[in-house]
């Protein structure tokens, strides 16, 4: 979680669905408490920065730090940071973890409290269920679905933080909710009243075991924003003058959430036992979600999430993750760097700073793909409030309370799934759902294949640049809802993340498509990743019915080169190693066949070009007065041969145009080609080319002695 100074409305807080308070105030003129002898007096906050030594700003050559001293300083700084983190972990040693048995034991012994809350929940949800029953009886279930979805969103908001979180979780589950409910629940926002400042300040002192004035020189007189789990203050550190965001947990929130999950688990047991049309294990879903919410209650865990996210993804210059102040962080207090910027859905405010929303969205898409498919650790609460445009054009990620991970095998399976989609191999797509853990191994995928074919045959009539991601997700959601799918949380959350990013981009450009923006990343991974699963997927994409699809390779190179991390060197070497693998005989046969075709196309293309460059009288003279051309080939065959030659030439040009291209990269390739298997492969190719050209030469001799020959252009 981090606070931001909004460029359009004054204060803007991003993270955890925080509701804005007094957002039209001018931040620079806001009133703050100055802490002096534990008494709070109003004062204007000036965003102080660490003091600088005037002499240090223009160091003499002799006083400049050496490389060794800089390294030593960084090591000391890292050591201090690790020690501060260890102290923060010590303060969170008693943090609660989710345990169904513990909450059952605790709240089962408080029957009257549980009964009171049960009646409150039943009163709200019972009326809703009654309306659904009437709709079903009258045949208006579909007609009133959007209306009922809106009512459910408002009920969840009234029932408090647990149900707000529950609704937000359901909004990512297309296997559980129809599309209208998914869309409506995605709009859920935390909007709870603040709790007293005195309680918040007492919590800070109790958690950190320090007086408030020893930590901060100033703090906002009231929360900048409030959310379901806590509220946030803007403050200034006394020791450095740095402006920070201080998140304080709501009193009693753990008790309230524990009681709600105890009651919700009871409902889940009944659903699993008596409701047949819901095939998903509801109790497992509840426990999984409750575990995530309990993790959010531990602010040290959130701080560690932020640090890990920063290490993995903030290596890119256009991604920002705020720093953690470990000495002022505990189980219920989180102190982070204050980030200045604008919410990503405030297009006019962003553009007024000379920034482009689409550039920021593209950054978000590339980072999301890396999260899902590269490292597997990703932000599990993706919404516009957690994405921030900084004045210098960076995309800031905020609020790291709810994170998730993609299993390694699933990362590769997803890329393979995309390959099967491109190939329209719906049987393979259906089987992918086993690897992705969408289906149990005992489920027969045969009935699912026609549903996939019906949807994707229509969707794939569009080009990648035309296909709308939300339409794709909605269509898949309908399939998931009809069949016994159990969509893992990681997959549902990343789909939601990309849908949110596309939605933000559509405000700026109605023609923007997230799939088109994602394709360069997939192309780069397929071309450069040495993982055996992805290498097999690449072969599957490039070869069909024993023929090499050069247009696919050209398209992959065109798209992959759009990714700034694409390297022609990386694209060449793994393919060669795979080709020369001892177990690669089947692939070698295909490659030999294609290499012969290409070599012949280049040779014959050279002959045709030479022939066309000759004057007319020389053509007839050289070819014995026959003006039909130098080759015994039909027009169609000749055109196909020249197209192949030109396509291979374009592909080589794409490799050369890569920023990383250097003739020196061919040196490792030459070393690989010196291997015995490579020499045998080269000999087989040369032999095949020789045979084809000899056959062509014989055809030419026969044509010279035969009055009729195939016409050529």
UniProtKB/TrEMBL annotation:
Low complexity biased stretches: 55-69
Residues of the Protein kinase domain: 218-548
InterPro entries registered for this protein in UniProt: ABC1_dom, Prot_kinase_dom, UbiB_kinase
Disordered: annotated segments: 47-69
Gene Ontology MF annotations: ATP binding; protein kinase activity
Pfam families with a match to the protein in the record: ABC1
Similarity-based family: Belongs to the protein kinase superfamily. ADCK protein kinase family.
Protein name: UbiB domain
Species of provenance: Arabidopsis suecica
């Amino acid at each position: 979680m981090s606070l931001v100074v909004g460029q359009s409305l004054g204060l803007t807080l991003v993270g955890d669905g925080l509701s804005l308070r007094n957002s039209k105030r001018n931040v620079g003129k806001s009133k703050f408490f100055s802490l002096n002898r534990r008494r709070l007096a109003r004062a204007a906050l000036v965003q102080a920065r660490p003091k600088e030594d005037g002499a240090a700003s223009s160091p003499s050559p002799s006083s400049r730090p050496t490389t060794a001293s800089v390294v030593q300083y960084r090591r000391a700084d890292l050591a201090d940071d690790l020690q501060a983190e260890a102290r923060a972990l010590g303060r969170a040693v008693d943090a609660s973890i989710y345990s169904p048995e513990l909450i059952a034991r605790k709240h089962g012994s408080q029957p009257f409290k549980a009964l009171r809350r049960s009646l409150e929940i039943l009163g709200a949800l019972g009326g809703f269920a009654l309306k659904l029953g009437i709709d079903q009886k009258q045949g208006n279930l579909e007609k009133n679905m959007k209306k009922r979805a809106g009512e459910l969103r408002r009920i969840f908001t009234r029932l408090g933080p647990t149900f707000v979180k529950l609704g937000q979780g359901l909004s990512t589950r297309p296997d559980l909710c129809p599309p209208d409910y998914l869309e409506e629940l995605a709009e859920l926002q935390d909007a709870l009243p603040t709790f007293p400042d005195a309680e918040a300040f007492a919590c800070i002192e109790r958690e950190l075991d320090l007086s408030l004035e020893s930590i901060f020189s100033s703090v906002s007189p009231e929360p900048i924003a409030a959310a379901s789990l806590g509220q946030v203050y803007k403050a200034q550190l006394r020791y450095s003058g740095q402006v920070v965001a201080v998140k304080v947990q709501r009193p009693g929130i753990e008790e309230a959430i524990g009681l709600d999950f105890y009651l919700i688990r009871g409902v889940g047991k009944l659903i699993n036992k008596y409701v047949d049309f819901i095939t998903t294990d509801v109790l497992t879903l509840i426990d999984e979600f409750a575990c995530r919410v309990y993790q959010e209650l531990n602010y040290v865990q959130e701080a560690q999430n932020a640090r890990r996210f920063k290490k993995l993804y903030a290596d890119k210059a256009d991604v920002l993750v705020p720093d953690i102040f470990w000495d002022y962080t505990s189980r219920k207090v989180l102190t982070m760097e204050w980030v200045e910027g604008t919410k990503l859905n405030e297009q006019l405010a962003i553009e007024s700073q000379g920034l482009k929303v689409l550039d920021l969205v593209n950054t978000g898409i590339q980072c999301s793909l890396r999260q899902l498919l590269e490292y597997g650790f990703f932000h599990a609460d993706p919404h516009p409030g957690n994405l921030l445009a900084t004045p210098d054009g960076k995309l800031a990620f905020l609020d790291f309370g709810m994170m998730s991970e993609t299993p390694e095998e699933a990362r590769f399976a997803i890329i393979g799934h995309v390959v099967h989609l491109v190939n329209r191999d719906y049987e393979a797509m259906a089987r992918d759902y086993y690897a992705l853990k969408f289906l149990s191994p005992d489920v027969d995928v045969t009935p699912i294949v026609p549903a996939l074919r019906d949807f994707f045959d229509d969707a794939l009539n569009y080009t990648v640049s035309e296909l709308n991601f939300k339409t794709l997700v909605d269509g898949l959601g309908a399939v998931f809802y009809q069949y016994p799918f159990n969509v893992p949380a990681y997959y549902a959350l990343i789909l939601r993340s990309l849908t949110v990013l596309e939605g933000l981009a559509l405000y700026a450009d109605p023609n923007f498509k997230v799939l088109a923006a994602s394709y360069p990343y997939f192309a780069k991974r397929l071309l450069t990743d040495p993982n055996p699963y992805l290498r097999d997927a690449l072969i599957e994409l490039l070869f069909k019915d024993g023929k090499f699809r050069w247009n696919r390779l050209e398209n992959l190179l065109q798209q992959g080169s759009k990714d700034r991390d694409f390297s022609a060197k990386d694209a060449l070497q793994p393919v060669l190693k795979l080709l020369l693998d001892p177990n690669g005989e089947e692939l070698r046969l295909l490659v030999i066949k294609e290499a012969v075709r290409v070599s012949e196309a280049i040779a014959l293309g050279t002959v045709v070009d030479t022939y066309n460059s000759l004057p007319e009288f020389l053509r007839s003279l050289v070819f014995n007065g026959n003006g039909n051309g130098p080759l015994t080939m039909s027009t169609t065959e000749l055109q196909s041969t020249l197209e192949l030659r030109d396509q291979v030439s374009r592909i080589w040009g794409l490799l050369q145009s890569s920023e990383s291209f250097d003739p020196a990269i061919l040196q490792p390739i030459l070393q690989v080609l010196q291997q015995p298997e490579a020499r045998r492969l080269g000999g087989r190719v040369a032999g095949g080319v020789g045979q084809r050209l000899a056959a062509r030469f014989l055809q030419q001799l026969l044509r010279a002695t035969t009055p009729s020959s195939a016409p050529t252009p």
